[in-house]
Amino acid sequence: MSVEEAQRIGYETAMRWTKGKYQFFVCTHNDRGHLHSHIYYNSTREDSTRKFHNFIGSTFFVRRLSDRICLEHSLSVIHHPKQHSDSKFKHYGQWQGDNKPLSFQERLKIAIANTLEQQPQDFNTFLSLMGDAGFEHKYGRGGALSFRTEGQIKYTRLRTSTLGDGYSIEDIQAVIDGGISYDEWQEKTTPNEQAHDTKPTPRKFNLVIDIQEKMQQGKGAAYEKWATVYNLKQMAAALQYIQENKLLAYEDLATKAEKAADRFHNLSDKLKQTESAIKRNTELKSAIIDYAKTRPIFDEYKSKKYSNKYLVEHEADITVYHAAQSTIKELLNGAAFPKMADLKAEFDILVLDKKTYYAEYKAAQKDMKEAVVIKANIDHLLGLTTQQQNKEMER
Fold first, then answer.
1. Which residues touch 211 (CB under 8 Å, ≥6 apart)?
2. What pLDDT is attached to residue 94?
3. Considering the entire predicted model, what is its pTM?
4. Which domain holds residue 11?
């Protein structure tokens, strides 16, 4: 590795750690037996609005980020480091491969994906987050939007003809507004699979791409370069995942993916049951209130021996009474008539349960997605044909 490449990697690490919000400089040693870089960054934010505060575990996160970047650039990392009496770390592992620096367009696409994943509230927030990621923007004729990052001379226009499907202003706005989900947008921006007679199952996760298969379909050298970088990042994430979770045997990885999927589906079922109970509780309370309000009118109608004149005058209320009575009968299904105070207490408990289940559900969903996609990538690397099993597990 050259000094220039070491300097670029150090800059990338500093930029991803500070998110471009703090000034920094990178110094690379070439006077030692091995190249290494030192990063110094200002503790005061560039806009002087706040200072950097160290947090518990920050050392771990810096090391994890450094490991991820090293893996992406085919460099060695320390696997489960242990410090010895001589204060030196040992137990090196090596990730082999050949990676080239990303183009400005590729870096822009990655920055857009990372920004949209943060779910910005509006387009101005999106532009602000892009600025935090190191990309300045400008508007041209006709409202054309372009971005430029450090070291880039010409701006890159945000349009499909330049970046591909899903990268127009309209596409970005649709994700921000909730017109399409982030997963659907990723599927749109990921090269499509070969067309089949039947509609393929939509991919929800980013999986390793079969470069040879795509090249046989007529994809060019530019695609091969992009796919190589993309696959390297995917496999770097997979390697880091199995190392951190100590899944050294394939069976351990398969078991973890299966358990993660089972936990997600169990929590999903609990959440649906709780939401169903909340719906029933709400409908029952509403029906009881309507029943109580219209019962005197119906009793009066009954005492008048179901007078047509009285019915015409109070038809709306009597209709509400019958509807409420029918709803109560259906929901209770022969059970005792509940007290309103009991229903309110039950509702409060259900809402609290839903809040608890939802937090666990989101965490389990994240764990399942990560485990399933890692297993799918490992299967692809090993030549195993279990993608359908992974899709079934995901569903």
1. 224, 227, 228, 231
2. 35
3. 0.42
4. 3-93
